[in-house]
Design the sequence.
């Protein structure tokens, strides 16, 4: 291990293993020795290629360029800025592999926050507010759920019934025959995300109007006892009270 | 293939935490793939333990999704933050001990949260089923990655910011915002529906895919030896994946109890997801083009390319479902699950590309087996494709069945009519299981490769 490695790692604020690997890659790319590179990074003199090719003579100026720019101003030497971040290169003259944008991180963070805020406003806050206004108009016009049914709604959510069932009838031909189209007012008394996203089983928006409590209770307890070949799982692991609450919630959903 | 060696990997706190985060990410991704397989298996072949509650699809599917997004991808993304943000800002990870403590805390919170969903204590917010107190606990796991990012910015010596940094910071911020907005207590169903749609799309597209694509902007040039094709294209991808998904979720709620203007912008933003879907493979393919020799064939490059193809497929499918007529047929069917299979497959391949490239650096050992990595890629690629195909088919078949029955007056999609409308769908679910099994096998190969790289890889 090089004697300069600890100093270089400390100087760069990077782990020694990473500095060593970077030095090996860069030394190979630039044709210098790892030792020279580490000495440079540790604060010593700059590394020079082991076999520096002789500088090519400057190309002769063309007549045109000589005519238009007879005495080009001498460009000032580029300031030597110690590189603390090692950039992998294919060869010394190639474009760097990792190129970022010269910018401040505060501007970056503010930009990200601003874009996320716009997205949250358009995608959630304004649509939710619009739905709430519609719901507020419906307060008092919808029958409230009983306490038992509200307990049942919590079971409906916790058991993930919504992963296979929806509680929403859309205004589309596909949902024709499922009952009245669901509006925000209709589901106002349904707190929580009960509307669902998948119909592996049938829609339950108006199940209370189609089923009687006893058959529904028995179906949830032991589906095959009510419908032969039913693929619905049984919920016999729920207590009698829990099953009763779940049934009440579904029956009151009309 | 690498051989056993006695060499010890690096033990400083920063590299240890990054290595652990990568390993945990790989293990949890594989666990989630298996849980996902079991969940769908219960739909086709009741396994007999449904009566225990924990074997219900309604519990297993949300638990599998949470394990993947808030478990596997959390650790891969934080590993990327711990490794790449300091590196690309010219600093070093100086809070390794804090990061280690946070990794342990995140593992505890994640396991308890997923277990609570599987045990029937979920709060029923799709995509965010953790009980509210655990959501709050989970939110605290973002503080350390955020602090490490802020500290890296404060101490940075690079005056430029690489697109990977933008993506990782944007993903982290998006997860925080999604957790807050999607869990904000509301009292009516429509609002909760909108919240869930917003949160799920933002988490999938910005946190999972956005961050992982961000790592690809670092890994692909480094592994292939070719400079990034276009920094501007990477920025277009970043901004499109930061803004569009937040609103695109509304497009899934077409014809539902959501105001018309919200549906309209949802449709427009959802269709606009074509932009990142096409820009990502363009950027990666053109970066790799011209690479020669072993660099072009390196597992990291090939996995990133494969991930970009899956991402393109999932993105185009998502954009096509923006059309209200399409949504009226395939909405509420397994079609979206097929699309999700492609997007998740893409995310895991990008994650594996990052880990295969960077784990040898932080582990001090060579990749255990490039062959295993390529086989992992093939399994996930084919598995995701098969899953998507059969679930898409199942979705179209079910949707057409609902629509055909309603229009012809032969049946309605409730009661016995539901069975008529969805006849044959179970067979397609069964075929999709083959794809899910391939994906699960691929993720096991991934985990083996990662663990054996850390423990048995040849010393670099």
Sequence:
């Amino acid at each position: 291990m090089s004697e300069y490695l600890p100093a270089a790692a400390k100087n760069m604020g990077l782990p020694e293993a990473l500095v060593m690997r970077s030095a090996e890659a860069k030394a190979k790319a630039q044709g210098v020795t790892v030792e020279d590179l580490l000495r440079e990074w540790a604060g010593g003199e700059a590394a020079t290629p082991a076999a520096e090719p002789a500088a090519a003579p400057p190309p002769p100026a063309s007549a045109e360029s000589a005519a238009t720019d007879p005495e080009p101003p001498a460009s000032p030497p580029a300031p030597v800025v110690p590189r603390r971040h090692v950039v992998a290169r294919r060869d010394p003259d190639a474009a760097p592999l990792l190129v970022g944008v010269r910018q401040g991180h505060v501007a970056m963070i503010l930009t990200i926050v601003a874009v996320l805020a716009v997205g949250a406003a358009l995608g959630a806050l304004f649509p939710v507010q619009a739905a709430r206004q519609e719901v507020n108009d419906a307060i008092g016009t919808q029958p409230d759920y009983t306490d038992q049914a509200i307990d049942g709604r919590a079971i409906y959510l916790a058991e993930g019934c919504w992963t296979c069932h929806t509680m929403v009838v859309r205004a589309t031909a596909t949902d024709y025959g499922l009952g009245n189209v669901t509006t925000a007012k209709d589901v106002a008394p349904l707190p929580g995300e009960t509307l669902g996203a998948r119909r592996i089983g049938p829609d339950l928006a108006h199940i209370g109007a189609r089923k009687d409590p006893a058959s529904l209770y028995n179906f949830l307890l032991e589906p095959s006892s009510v419908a032969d070949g039913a693929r619905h799982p049984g919920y016999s692991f729920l207590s009698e009270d829990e099953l009763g609450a779940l049934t009440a919630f579904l029956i009151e959903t009309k | 293939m690498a051989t056993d060696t006695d060499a010890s990997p690096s033990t400083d706190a920063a590299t240890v935490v990054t290595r652990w985060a990568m390993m945990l990410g790989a293990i949890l991704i594989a666990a989630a793939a298996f849980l996902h397989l079991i969940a769908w298996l219960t739909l086709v072949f009741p396994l007999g333990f449904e009566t225990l509650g924990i074997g219900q699809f309604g519990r297993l599917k949300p638990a599998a999704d949470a394990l993947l997004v808030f478990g596997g991808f959390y650790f891969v993304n934080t590993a990327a933050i711990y490794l790449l943000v300091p590196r690309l800002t010219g600093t070093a990870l100086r809070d390794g001990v804090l990061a280690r403590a946070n990794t342990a805390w995140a593992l505890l919170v994640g396991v308890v949260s997923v277990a609570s969903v599987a045990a029937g204590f979920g709060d029923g917010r799709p995509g965010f089923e953790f009980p509210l107190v655990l959501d709050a606990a989970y939110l605290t796991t973002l503080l350390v990655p955020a602090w490490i990012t802020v500290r890296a910015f404060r101490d940075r010596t690079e005056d430029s910011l690489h697109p990977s940094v933008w993506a990782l910071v944007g993903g982290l911020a998006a997860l925080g915002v999604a957790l807050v907005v999607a869990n904000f207590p509301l009292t009516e169903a429509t609002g909760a529906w909108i919240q869930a749609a917003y949160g799920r799309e933002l988490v999938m597209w910005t946190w999972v895919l956005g961050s992982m694509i961000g790592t690809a902007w670092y890994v692909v040039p480094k592994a292939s030896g070719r400079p990034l094709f276009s920094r501007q294209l990477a920025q277009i991808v970043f901004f499109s994946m930061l803004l569009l998904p937040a609103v695109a979720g509304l497009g899934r709620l077409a014809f539902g109890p959501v105001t018309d203007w919200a549906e309209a912008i949802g449709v427009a933003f959802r269709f606009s997801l074509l932009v990142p879907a096409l820009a990502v493979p363009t950027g990666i393919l053109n970066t790799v083009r011209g690479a020669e020799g072993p660099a072009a064939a390196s597992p990291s490059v090939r996995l990133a390319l494969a991930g970009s193809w899956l991402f393109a497929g999932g993105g185009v499918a998502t954009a096509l479902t923006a059309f209200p007529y399409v949504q009226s047929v395939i909405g509420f069917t397994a079609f979206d699950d097929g699309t999700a299979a492609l997007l998740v497959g893409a995310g895991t391949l990008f994650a594996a590309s990052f880990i295969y490239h960077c784990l040898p650096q932080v582990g001090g050992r060579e990749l255990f087996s490039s062959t295993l990595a390529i086989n992992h890629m093939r399994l996930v690629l084919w598995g995701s494709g098969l899953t998507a195909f059969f679930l898409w088919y199942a979705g179209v078949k079910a949707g057409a069945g609902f629509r055909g029955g309603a229009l012809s007056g032969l049946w309605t999609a409730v009661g016995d009519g539901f069975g008529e409308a969805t006849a044959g769908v179970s067979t397609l679910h069964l075929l999709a299981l083959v794809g899910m099994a391939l994906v699960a096998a691929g993720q096991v190969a991934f985990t083996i490769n990662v663990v054996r790289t850390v423990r048995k890889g040849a010393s670099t």
Remarks:
- The CA atoms of residues 190 and 229 of chain A lie 31 Å apart.
- Chain A touches chain B through 93 residues (CB under 8 Å).
